[in-house]
């Protein structure tokens, strides 16, 4: 128990260090921008007729620091604001705080990717088991081949192909936007069904492009376990087939468990292409838009959130794994 | 012991153990490899008399482990049993039973103790849970009694039973795992037990105490034991009968002290001379010439030992000798019996 | 062994030449053993040739044809034309250089950084290991594609070298960690300790003893990193976050989807599909060829062939 | 001559994240190996015998004590000089399957070190290939068939011979042979043992032979000394044949009793006993005799005070026991 706490504290500490490192990276990145956007913003505000004090305050609200201050002071202010979960104010959505924009974009990404992740994981793992057990039969081989092909196709190619097939060639599904703009958003059937049908293609794209990876990993994991001595031993001890399959599945899925929980972390930043192609208002799109409009506070905020998600899932994975695998447990 | 009295003893033993726990005939196992078909076990007949300990000796790659896997009908790919029969208790043929019937025999009637270096336990389940899995698979009604018996066995084996049952495999040392393996082989009251290099990776003292326990349990439960090893010492110490295996064939068999005191096959003689011993004259010891059998050895038409044999003749290259009686229960596969090197 | 007699006759010449020769011969044997590998090899060779000589086959400014805007497939335009009437095939061929060169450089940076840092960390351990692994953790944790997107605001990706460098920087973490863990497990094997006991230098041990043992892993990673780099860079261009300096497949995709509206107007479809096709065929080639890599570098597998 | 004096080794094991465990692996070990001499270290796995060998090769640093090679205390030497001296002691690994680089041919392995030697001796490529052939023949291999092979094409015995030949390239004065025959087929073990013996006799190379199998220690030559190690401490020593026939320490006797009996060839010694209790790495440091908890002959004083290794009468024999008694435990030949 004491060990557990020490490790937890250590992991959280190093996680915070990591977040600070990424935060300083974005800070200096913005400072390095061609034409120094912070200064430019300040000058623009002066030109709009603000007094230097007003302009300074406005810039500070947006970026978390004032351009006239020395760099060290700016950096400290920026970090201090971050520690209060204050990511600054957006430039393109005037007067709206970055955290507000991020919080409203996150659910779109989460629902989209989480559904795709769960679906691809379940189907991929199942197919992987079958591909491993039937690896010398044509069916098993074709499963493996399907997996490697789908694994090899990049997400944006997959998205474009699916979009072409199901919206242009066979116009079965709507293309672009998260829901039909002619319908009033609200808790009514037309809106929900519109949401649903608009989500099918993006979810499918995500699921299909990650399915191959799960299949291949699960297949090789099962094959490794099948070669383990204790599987032969369980056969020679005459254990029931169902018990043996349970042994194999339990041992084979453990390595995938880590990958799965890690994927949850990468979820936040993992759908840039899909959101772009299908015009979904999630975090990935937010990041792209912020770059398009040179909305640097928004960009740093979105990027920071994506990183924090990964770091958090790393820590959680580490601890969950030590619970799931008795060999790690003390 | 004089020759006459030993022959007398043999008679008694032969009569007593007429019925065989396992009687395997004409076992052939072939491995398919990129270089061709390799007969890993060829025309092997082997009997395990009830209540006896039989030792099977062979170097690595001699096919001895394949043979006992064939008896269990559990040869793994790329190996395949080409022909043969394995009669259990003079009744059913293991190789002809349905998969489900075979499964019920494995583990329940025939116990198996794996190599010490092998991990025969599921790393993710506690030992106790795995005993329950075993019991459920073999339709044991009273699982509580099963656990109780397992504890009793573990205690006999010198282990802290409660602690072991609550442990995972990685929490046990090599010697402890091996004892747990023996418990698994015996907990369903199997009367035939196979031991495949079961003490090889253990320390001297652990090995000696494990062998001692096996000896005791065998006497008490009248077990039929087949012991497979490359270590002639372990086999000579424990077994009553001995089978010398070379390149997939039995080249000599008989009572242990008979075969060791009076070896007739040049391989047996060479092997005995080649092992480092604690007793006897060190200068008379000599390594066996040549290399251990490899895939080429298996493919020659004549005697498989030809290329390492000190007393070979041209005849040996043409034909392969059959295993023939030279005494009451002593058999040798050699054309040159009686010729000394 | 059937090769004994040839070995003897070759031995009289030059053993080193024999070994060098034997690698290429064995490599070719491994490739030609299965038709799939051969197909993969041929695809890779064709694309490489395309990248090397492609731009010389066409004038610097590709001809435009106002009469053949979005022309259908024909002998003159095997893959149709784009919004200016330029042949799609010519665009693919001339665009291959940037894509492949940047990907090759990216993969090379990835593999070189990853291998050297992984070897050093795994072999010397101690403080160099701690420092390297902390940095590796950092790069592994920061999601690389969003990072690339963010970096695109400050970095000029006009030259393939610049693109390759950034791809390498963001991608070496996984490689370093894997090479380190392989080095650690090789350290446990006796031969590294034996080499040290024999007084061989750390340089010799790192690059002559350990490196050949991870070479098949490195070879495979080189190929998979190439595909990874191609996707990442084409993706960046497709998203339009990187300014278009030169023609390449990603630019084509972006224009096709966001300017030409290929999704809704079927006439522009060849413009969209031709870069997709190029990507898919190249991927297929690399996937098929990967199968041969292990056999090329592993003497144990080589002999059986 | 190589001398070890009062060698100690502690290992710190990071058992858990927060606490550390210190293992006393070697306790005040002293031994002397003359040029061309041989010493066998006998004990169970984990008894510290391998650690002694590794300290001698410079693979581990002693926590305390001195190692003197040819009159020079190696801890007092500079790094370069120490490395040069330690190279005179070569370790032969237990596992021949792991000790050869799978990507190198035998010729590549041999020439890697021979190139260095050639540079020192100002010899050319000719010398390297000549020396390669010479050494391979010396260990009983045929250079023409083996030179361009990869390790996986050789048998375990051949691999072990290659490893010995490679160790000989640096012209060592001593070989530390750590369980060198345990992974080799029984029928081929004697060949390796005889090779080691001939290296002693022909080239005056001394041998530190580390094993758990007393029987194989007999085959290194009659003047081999046997040291029995238990929990890091040398508990008995003497000439091999003498220790086997007249063991004083109960632990030595237990080891000898544990040797399997070859029925028909051997019969057990009349005092043979089997030790059934298990070896345990005790949590806290024992005060008394390290073997007291398992010893069938222990008395109360054994767990209170620790006996020292004391020579008895003549200079070679010594044992650490309060109640030494010769027991006839080793198997003897049956006469036909």
From TrEMBL, chain A:
Organism, scientific name: Sporolactobacillus laevolacticus DSM 442
Location (main, coarse): membrane
UniProt keyword annotations, A-Z: Membrane, Transmembrane, Transmembrane helix, Transport
Any single Gene Ontology cellular-component annotation: plasma membrane
GO biological process: transmembrane transport
CDD domains registered for this protein in UniProt: TM_PBP2
Compartments in which it is found: Cell membrane; Membrane
PANTHER family reported for this sequence: OLIGOPEPTIDE TRANSPORT SYSTEM PERMEASE PROTEIN (PTHR43376)
Span of domain ABC transmembrane type-1: 106-317
Pfam families referenced in this protein's UniProt entry, alphabetically: BPD_transp_1
Record-given protein name: Peptide ABC transporter permease
Membrane topology: Multi-pass membrane protein
Family: Belongs to the binding-protein-dependent transport system permease family.
Sequence intervals crossing the membrane: 12-30, 110-133, 153-175, 187-208, 253-278, 298-321
Automatic annotation (TrEMBL), chain B:
Keyword Nucleotide-binding: yes
UniProt-recorded Gene Ontology molecular function terms: ATP binding; ATP hydrolysis activity
Pfam families for the chain: ABC_tran, oligo_HPY
Record domain ABC transporter: where: 24-272
Keywords of the record: ATP-binding, Nucleotide-binding, Transport
GO biological process, alphabetically ordered: peptide transport
InterPro entries in the record: AAA+_ATPase, ABC_transporter-like_ATP-bd, Oligopep_ABC_C, P-loop_NTPase
PANTHER family cross-referenced by the UniProt entry: MALTOSE ABC TRANSPORTER, ATP-BINDING PROTEIN, OLIGOPEPTIDE/DIPEPTIDE ABC TRANSPORTER, ATPASE SUBUNIT
Similarity-based family: Belongs to the ABC transporter superfamily.
Name of the molecule in the record: Peptide ABC transporter ATPase
Organism: Sporolactobacillus laevolacticus DSM 442
UniProtKB/TrEMBL annotation, chain C:
Topology in membrane: Multi-pass membrane protein
Keyword terms of this UniProt record: Cell membrane, Membrane, Peptide transport, Protein transport, Transmembrane, Transmembrane helix, Transport
Membrane spanning stretches: 38-58, 98-126, 138-155, 161-179, 217-239, 271-293
Claim: Cell membrane is one of the keywords in the record: yes
CDD domains: TM_PBP2
Family annotation (SUPFAM superfamilies): MetI-like (SSF161098)
UniProt-listed GO biological process terms: peptide transport; protein transport; transmembrane transport
Main location: membrane
GO cellular component, one term: plasma membrane
Location in the cell: Cell membrane
Domain ABC transmembrane type-1: 100-290
One of the Pfam families matching this protein, by short name: OppC_N
rRNA-binding as UniProt keyword: no
Record family assignment: Belongs to the binding-protein-dependent transport system permease family. OppBC subfamily.
Name of the protein: Peptide ABC transporter permease
UniProtKB/TrEMBL annotation, chain D:
Presence of keyword Cell inner membrane: no
InterPro entries membership: AAA+_ATPase, ABC_transporter-like_ATP-bd, ABC_transporter-like_CS, Oligopep_ABC_C, P-loop_NTPase
GO biological process, one term: peptide transport
Keyword Methyltransferase: no
GO MF terms, alphabetically ordered: ATP binding; ATP hydrolysis activity
Residue ranges of every copy of the ABC transporter domain listed in the record: 2-256
PROSITE patterns to which the protein is assigned, alphabetical: ABC_TRANSPORTER_1, ABC_TRANSPORTER_2
SMART domains: AAA (SM00382)
Pfam families according to UniProt: ABC_tran, oligo_HPY
Keywords, alphabetical: ATP-binding, Nucleotide-binding, Transport
Source superkingdom: Bacteria
Sequence similarity: Belongs to the ABC transporter superfamily.
Protein name stated in the entry: Peptide ABC transporter ATPase
Organism for this UniProt entry: Sporolactobacillus laevolacticus DSM 442
């Amino acid at each position: 128990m004491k060990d557990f706490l020490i490790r937890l504290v250590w992991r959280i500490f190093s996680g915070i260090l990591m977040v600070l490192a990424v935060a300083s990276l974005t800070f200096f990145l913005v400072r390095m921008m061609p034409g120094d956007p912070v200064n430019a913003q300040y000058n623009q505000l002066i030109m709009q007729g603000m007094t230097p004090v007003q302009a300074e305050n406005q810039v500070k609200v947006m970026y978390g620091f004032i351009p006239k201050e020395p760099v060290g002071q700016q950096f400290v202010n920026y970090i201090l604001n971050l520690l209060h979960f204050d990511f600054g104010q957006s430039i393109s959505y005037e007067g709206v705080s970055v955290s507000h924009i991020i919080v409203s974009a996150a659910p779109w990404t989460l629902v989209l990717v989480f559904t795709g992740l769960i679906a691809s994981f379940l189907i991929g793992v199942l197919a992987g088991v079958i591909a491993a057990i039937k690896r010398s039969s044509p069916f098993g081989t074709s499963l493996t081949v399907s997996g490697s092909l789908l694994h090899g196709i990049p997400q944006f190619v997959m998205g474009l192909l699916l979009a072409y097939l199901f919206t242009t060639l066979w116009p079965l599904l709507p293309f672009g936007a998260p829901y039909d703009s002619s319908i009033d958003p609200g808790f009514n059937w037309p809106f929900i069904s519109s949401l649903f049908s608009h989500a099918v293609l993006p979810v499918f794209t995500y699921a299909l492009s990650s399915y191959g990876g799960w299949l291949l990993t699960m297949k090789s994991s099962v094959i490794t376990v099948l070669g383990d001595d204790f599987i032969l031993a369980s056969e020679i001890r005459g254990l029931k087939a169902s018990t043996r399959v349970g042994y194999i599945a339990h041992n084979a899925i453990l390595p995938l468990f880590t990958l799965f929980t890690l994927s949850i972390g990468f979820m936040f930043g993992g759908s840039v292409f899909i959101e772009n192609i299908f015009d979904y208002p999630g975090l990935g799109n937010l990041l792209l838009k912020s770059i398009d409009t040179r909305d640097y506070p928004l960009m740093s905020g979105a990027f920071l959130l994506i990183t924090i998600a990964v770091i958090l899932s790393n820590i959680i994975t580490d601890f969950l794994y030590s619970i799931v695998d008795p060999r790690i447990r003390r | 012991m004089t020759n006459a009295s030993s022959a007398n003893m043999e008679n008694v033993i032969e009569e007593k153990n007429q019925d065989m726990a396992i009687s395997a005939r004409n076992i052939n196992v072939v491995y398919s490899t990129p270089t061709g078909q390799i007969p890993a076990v060829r025309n092997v007949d082997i009997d395990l008399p009830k209540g006896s300990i039989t030792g099977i000796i062979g170097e690595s790659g001699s096919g001895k482990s394949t043979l006992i896997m064939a008896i269990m009908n559990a040869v793994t790919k790329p190996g395949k049993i080409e022909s043969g029969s394995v009669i259990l208790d003079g009744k059913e043929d293991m190789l002809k039973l349905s998969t489900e019937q075979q499964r019920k025999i494995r583990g329940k009637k025939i116990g198996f103790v794996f190599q010490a270096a092998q991990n025969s336990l599921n790393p993710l389940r506690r030992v106790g849970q795995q005993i329950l899995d075993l019991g459920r698979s073999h339709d044991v009604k009273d699982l509580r009694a099963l656990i109780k018996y397992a504890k009793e066995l573990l205690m006999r084996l010198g282990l802290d039973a409660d602690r072991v049952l609550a442990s995972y495999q990685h929490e046990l040392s090599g010697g402890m795992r091996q004892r747990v393996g023996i418990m698994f082989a015996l907990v369903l009251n199997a009367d035939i037990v196979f031991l495949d290099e079961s003490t090889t990776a253990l320390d001297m003292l652990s090995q000696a105490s494990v062998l001692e326990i096996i000896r005791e349990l065998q006497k008490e439960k009248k077990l039929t034991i087949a012991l497979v090893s490359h270590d002639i010492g372990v086999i000579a110490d424990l077994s009553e009968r001995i089978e010398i295996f070379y390149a997939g064939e039995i080249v000599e068999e008989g009572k242990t002290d008979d075969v060791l005191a009076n070896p007739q096959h040049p391989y047996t003689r060479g092997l005995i001379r080649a092992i480092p011993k604690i007793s006897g004259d060190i200068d008379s010891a000599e390594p066996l010439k040549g290399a251990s059998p490899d895939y080429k050895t298996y493919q020659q038409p004549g005697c498989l030992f030809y290329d390492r044999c000190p007393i070979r003749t041209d005849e040996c290259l043409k034909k392969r000798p059959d295993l023939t009686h030279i005494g009451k229960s002593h058999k040798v596969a050699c054309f040159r019996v009686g010729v000394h090197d | 062994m059937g090769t004994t007699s040839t070995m003897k006759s070759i031995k009289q010449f030059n053993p080193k030449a024999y070994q060098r020769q034997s690698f290429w011969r064995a490599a070719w044997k491994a490739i030609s053993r299965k038709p799939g590998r051969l197909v993969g090899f041929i695809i890779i060779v064709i694309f490489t040739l395309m990248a090397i000589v492609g731009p010389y086959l066409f004038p610097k400014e590709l001809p435009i044809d106002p009469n053949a805007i979005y022309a259908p497939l024909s002998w003159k335009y095997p893959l149709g034309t784009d919004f200016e009437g330029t042949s799609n095939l010519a665009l693919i061929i001339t665009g291959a250089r940037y894509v492949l060169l940047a990907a090759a450089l990216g993969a090379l940076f990835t593999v070189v950084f990853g291998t050297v840092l992984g070897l050093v960390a795994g072999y010397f351990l101690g403080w160099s290991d701690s420092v390297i692994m902390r940095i590796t953790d950092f790069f592994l944790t920061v999601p690389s594609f969003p990072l690339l997107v963010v970096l695109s605001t400050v970095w000029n990706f006009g030259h393939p070298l610049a693109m390759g460098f950034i791809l390498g920087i963001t991608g070496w973490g996984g490689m370093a960690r894997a090479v380190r863990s392989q080095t650690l497990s090789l350290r446990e094997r006796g031969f590294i300790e034996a080499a040290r006991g024999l007084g061989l230098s750390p340089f010799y041990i790192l690059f002559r003893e350990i490196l050949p043992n991870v070479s098949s892993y490195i070879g495979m990673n080189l190929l998979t990193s190439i595909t990874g780099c191609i996707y990442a860079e084409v993706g960046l261009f497709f998203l339009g976050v990187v300014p278009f300096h030169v023609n390449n497949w990603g630019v084509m995709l972006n224009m096709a989807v966001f300017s030409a509206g290929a999704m809704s107007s079927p006439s522009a479809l060849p413009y969209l599909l031709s870069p997709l096709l190029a990507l898919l065929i190249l991927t297929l080639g690399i996937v098929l060829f990967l199968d041969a890599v292990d056999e090329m570098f592993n003497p144990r597998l080589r002999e059986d062939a | 001559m190589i001398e070890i004096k009062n060698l100690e080794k502690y290992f710190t094991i990071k058992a858990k994240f927060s606490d550390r465990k210190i293992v006393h692996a070697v306790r005040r070990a002293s031994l002397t190996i003359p040029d061309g001499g041989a010493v066998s270290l006998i004990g169970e796995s984990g008894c510290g015998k391998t650690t002694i060998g590794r300290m001698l090769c410079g693979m581990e640093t002693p926590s305390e004590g001195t190692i003197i090679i040819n009159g020079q205390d190696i801890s007092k030497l500079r790094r370069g000089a120490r490395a040069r001296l330690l190279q005179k002691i070569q370790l032969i690994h237990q596992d021949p399957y792991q000790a050869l680089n799978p990507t190198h041919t035998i010729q590549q392995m041999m020439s890697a070190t021979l190139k260095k030697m050639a540079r020192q001796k100002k010899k050319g490529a000719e010398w390297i290939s000549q020396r390669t052939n010479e050494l391979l023949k010396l260990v009983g291999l045929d250079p023409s068939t083996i030179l361009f092979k990869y390790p996986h094409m050789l048998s375990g015995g051949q691999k072990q011979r290659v490893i010995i030949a490679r160790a000989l390239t640096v012209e060592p004065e001593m070989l530390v042979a750590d369980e060198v025959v345990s992974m080799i087929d029984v029928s081929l073990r004697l060949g390796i043992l005889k090779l080691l013996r001939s290296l002693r006799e022909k080239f005056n190379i001394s041998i530190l032979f580390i094993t758990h199998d007393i029987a194989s220690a007999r085959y290194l030559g009659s003047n081999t000394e046997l040291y029995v190690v238990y929990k890091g401490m040398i508990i008995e020593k003497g000439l091999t044949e003498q220790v086997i026939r007249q063991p004083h320490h109960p632990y030595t006797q237990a080891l000898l009793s544990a040797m399997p009996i070859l029925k028909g060839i051997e019969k057990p010694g009349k005092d043979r006993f089997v030790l059934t209790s298990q070896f345990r790495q005790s949590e806290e440091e024992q005060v008394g005799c390290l073997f007291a908890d398992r010893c069938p002959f222990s008395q109360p004083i054994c767990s209170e005070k620790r006996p020292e290794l004391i020579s008895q009468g003549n200079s070679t024999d010594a044992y650490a026991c309060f109640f030494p008694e010769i027991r006839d435990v080793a198997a003897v030949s049956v006469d036909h």
